[in-house]
Amino acid sequence: xxxxxxxxxxEASLLEGLLGFGMLGxxxxxxxxTDSIKISFVACGALLGxxxxxxxxxxxxYTERLKKSxxxxxxxxxxxxxxxxxxxLFKSHGYDVKxxxxxxxxxxxxxxxxxxxxxxxQAKRYSKNVGIKAVQETHSSMGYYKAGEAWVVTNSKYTDAxxxxxxxxxxxxxxxxxxxxxxxxxxxxxxxxxxxxxxxxQLPQKEEKRCPKCGAPMVRRKSSMGYFLxxxxxxxxxxxxxx
Length: 243
Description:
The protein has 243 residues and is an alpha+beta fold. The protein is built from eight helices and nine strands. The chain has helices at 2-34, 37-67, 71-74, 79-92, 132-145, 160-169, 176-186, 192-195, and strands at residues 96-99, 110-114, 117-124, 149-154, 172-174, 201-202, 218-223, 226-231, 240-242.
């Protein structure tokens, strides 16, 4: 992710440099042909207008693509991109949204409000389970933003300690399954199968099996060898069963 962020920063710097040289070149060439400083400035302004229009069109296209993202796309996002995605997602559900600054956010990545209720949200685009730190930070940000509720949203799951602390502090945890539900409500045309492709399948209630080691639910998973049952508490518990 850091490498990708550095590459984007370099690309932006290169684009700015090319724009500067382009405007200088157009200005000099126009002046050489017309011998008019006024026409040279007009040509530079026209070039700048074209570039700005292209940037706006690209941003609009990016926003539309972001809105249509499914859970598989989210799994590939950087943290800041995930925050902006959640901003669009909550807006589609009727919330007023403010994405906080990248640094010095006091524990909240977004501040959303609806029906007079203000909520602080911390976004965690993780490949592992989210721990208690996220719960502590978003709860502590309530006072600064004068919010009545605190939420943590992740594309992953939560540790048992995080769930216990969230329950005691009344912090709402939105995990992978709930996030998929929000996505599909916002965009029913999203490919449901693709959206759930990396999510362990919970067995129907009537077929639910329990781990013989720790008693947690067994979930349906897929490996290169096919489907199998694995303990929901993996990797703490590595119990498996053949289907």
